[in-house]
Structure formats: structure tokens, C-alpha cells
Amino acid sequence: MTRVGSPLVGAASQATGLPPFVIDNWIGNYRRKKTSSSQPKNKKLHTKDLSGYNLFCRDLLKNKGSLKDITQKWSTLGEVEKRKYAEEAAALKVQRTSDDMSPETRSLKVKKHLKQIKTEVASLEKLGVETGVMMFDHQKPFLDVLEVSSKGASSFFDRTDVLDNFALHFKGNSSSTSAVKQPVDTMVKKVQELFNRKYNEAGGRGRLPYISIQNESIIINASGLPDGITLKKPCHYGRKQLEVILKNAEQISFQINSGRKIRPTVEDIFNVMCGNDMSASGSSGKRKSYTVEYKKAIVEESWGKNVVQFCKEKMLDHRLVQKWRAEYTNLSEKVESGMAKKRKIGCGRQPMYTELESLVSEWVADRRAKTLVVTRAQIQEYALAVSPQFDISPEQFKASQHWVDNFLERNDLSLRRSTTLFRLEDAEIVKRALAYKKFVDDIDFSKYSLCNMIAMDEIAVFMGQAAQTTIDRGASSVYVPSTAYESARVTCILTIRLDGTKATPLLIAKGKKEKIERVSGIYVLETEKAWATQDVIRK
């Protein structure tokens, strides 16, 4: 049993008494561990040649020498000993020739040089130089020509027989005539680049817009395509079609024509502003809502026109428009009487647990009458706790977040913030900001060094932080009870010098010592009111 979702998972769950998802997790962990352990590690190519100094370090470490003594001992080593290490290093370098090289090392070296060639070709292409490189590997089991080229050179190779002639010289086959077929992904990419190039030659910009072609907002006449092949995304072609398109690449040309564009009416714009989606056809699986004004306007606009053609332009179902035509009198009466946007009394889905919601609403009102905080989580917990009183099982009622949202909306409740906090008026804030700016502008900073200029900020840390939000109805003021510890606080001062050096934090607490002490790496000072006054700053 090594597959998640196997039928044996249920039997294992019954036998062990564990939930099925636990067994699925175990299976997933086992497969990931097995896959990671079975994957071979990528081999790295070490191309740096060893020097005499490296061989000396090797011998010294073998004899249990220390790293600290290597430099000193190497400098005191005689010239004869150094020459021996140099000769040994040269001999090892000679051994690393291609004749004695293992196939794995040779393959890694070839990949390394190919990567360097690609980098150089890309760099030359940025400088406006088109470059093409052809390579043939004699030690490969199959004969093939490798190509590394810029975009312009690649186009040249596609239009000429250079690769074929190069391959025939070595009695091989190029990638276009090889017995080993090209991957379909490579052919799709080539056809895509071909279509984009033809589109740009015809006056377009960027990539070929397949979606605009499908929507007929742009019409492209493609000439030169093989018989039976139409213009579409290259990924929708088969292998034979891709081969034929690439073979006839020179005969293909595009001509761009502006597609048919339907000018939207006032009703269309109004409908979009109201949120009605007109971009999809009337046969869409998702139902849409249309206002009475829109229905009446569509019926009036369709008089004297072909209904089928009119509905195609409006992207509506003709049966829906015919139904609106039959109800035109009723629609006109609703618009004239002002009942167009009103729903019928009692329509829409009704709450499933009205008695439960009534009890929860009374509980919320009772707690707020006692000025107690009510949160969404408390509403969920209370609803789940009292649901058995109404014979509601936990499987039927989950008290989800969606239910809480609908419950708050149905009972005119919302999350409110306490209004008992003092806040400065906007005019006072602007006044203080301007005064501070004037104070800073008057300072001559050239008289002081950066290490003597300090940026400081203070913040009050309260011991009793009560919740400032609660569920309540739309009252003008919201009261939240306190914890009676609002006055218990300390003041924290954080400073940094303008040269980037951070200073040690300072805590100011209530007390009578009035002496600065260092406690656990910070300074602590006791004052009568725990305020950051001028005397405290001077200390």
C-alpha cells in the first residue's frame, strides 16, 4: 500500500483505529523519503589543478599537523623539497588528459564548455553580433550535430542546408534529418517562434494574440499554410502538421485586418457598472442577475430586429429575450411604480436555525448590556454549546465563519471599536507637527558631531491591555470595561546615535529610588510618575 487514496487505507484505518488522513500522510512521507533517497546526486566537475603547496598541505595533515603551522613550515621549506612537490603536481596534471579521462568526467567537461559557448553567444548577440556554432561529438553512440546560435543565425540554419552538409561530412545526420525524431515540444517552440516572427513582419508587436483571433477582435489572413491546416496555437498541431509547417516556413505570410468591434450601448455600460457580466454568452453555466430596467431596455431595443442576430450581438440567450418580451407590460409597470429594484417579501433562502439564532442574539444583547466584550469566536462557541438544546447535531451545524457573517448581518450586528479613547483633533496634530519642524529647522547641525546627536523615542507600555473591539449594534458610542490596571505602566526610551550606534534602552518605572541601575543589559530608573521628563533625559 504505497498510494494515497488506496482502497486499503480504509481497511488499515479500521484495523489500527487511526483516521484515514493520518495513514495518507504516512504514505506520502514514505514516498517522498524513498524518492529523495533514490535520486542520484549531481556530480560536480573539479577542474582546478593541484599545486605543490596543496600536496604539501596534504602530507602535513596526514601526519597530524595543524593548520596554523602550514604557512610557516612552507616558508621554511627548502628549495629541493619544494621542487619535489612541484614535479609531483606537474605529473598529476599530465595524468588528467582526455585519454585517461573517465566517460563521466569527459561528459561533465563537454557540458561545461557548451555552457561557456552559450554564454559567449548570448553576450555577442546583445552586442549585435550574430553567431552560429556547429559541433560534432565522435564518441557519442549516435551521430548528431549540435548547434549553438543566436536567433538570426538559427533562422539562417533553418533556411539553408549548412547543418546537413556539416553532418554529411562526418557521415552523420543533422537534427532535422536524424533518425532520432525531434521532440514535439521543440517543434512546437519553433513553430511558435515562426508565427511570432511572421506576425511582427506583418506589422504586429510582440507575440501572436491567439485569444484576440478567437474572439474575432483581430482577423489575420494566413497565406502559405499547407492544405488542411488552419492558424491556431502550435500546441494544438500534431507531429506531422508541425513538420509540414516548418518545411514550408518560407511560403507562410500573415496579413492583419481589424476585426469586428461592437460599440456598446448605454444599457451595456449601465449593466457593467451594476455588476452584470455581459462578457459571457447566455448559455453559461453560472446564472446572472439582470435588473428590471435592463430587461425593459433590451426589449425596447430589440423591437423590429432579428431576435437571434440581436441576441448574438448582446451575447444573450434568445429564449431569455423572448420571455422578457412576453413580460414587457409587467416590466413597464414595475419601472413606473418604482418597484423595479425591490425584492418580494419573504423571497430568498430563509435561516435554517431561527430559534438558535434568536437565543444567540439575546445572549449577545445581554452581555453588551453588562458592557462585556463579545467576539466572533465567543459567538461560535456559544452557538455550538446551545445547539443540542434544539436537537441540532454537530454534523448539521458547524458554526462556520460564513454563518457568523450572515448571523451578524441578519441581526444588525457588527464588529465595533471602543470609542472611549482620547484622540487629538486633526488641527492640533498639524499644529504640533509644524512647531516641531520649525524647531528642527532652527538647529545648526554643523556645530555637533554625529556621535553626539541622538534620535530618541519613548513609548508607554501598559500592564493591562484590554480588548478594544466587541460585537455590538450601531450605537453612537461603545463602552468596553477596563481591567483596572491602565495606570500601571512603564515608559521605554529607545535611542540611536546618528553615526548608527544603538544606545542601551532605558525603562522608567514608578518608585522612589531615582537612581539609574543596569538590570539584564538595560538601564532601569524609578521616578514618582514614570514619566520621561527633562530631568530624566539629562540623567
UniProtKB/TrEMBL annotation:
PROSITE patterns the record matches: GTF2I (PS51139), HTH_CENPB (PS51253)
Lineage: Eukaryota, Metazoa, Chordata, Craniata, Vertebrata
GO cellular component, one term: nucleus
Single GO MF annotation: DNA binding
Classification via InterPro entries: GTF2I, GTF2I-like_rpt_sf, HMG_box_dom_sf, Homeodomain-like_sf, HTH_CenpB_DNA-bd_dom
Keyword field contains Nucleus: yes
Domain HTH CENPB-type: 344-417
Cell compartment(s), UniProt: Nucleus
Chief location bin: nucleus
Protein name: HTH CENPB-type domain-containing protein
Species for this entry: Poecilia mexicana
UniProt keyword annotations, A-Z: DNA-binding, Nucleus, Repeat, Transcription, Transcription regulation
Domain of life: Eukaryota
Cytoplasm is among the record's keywords: no
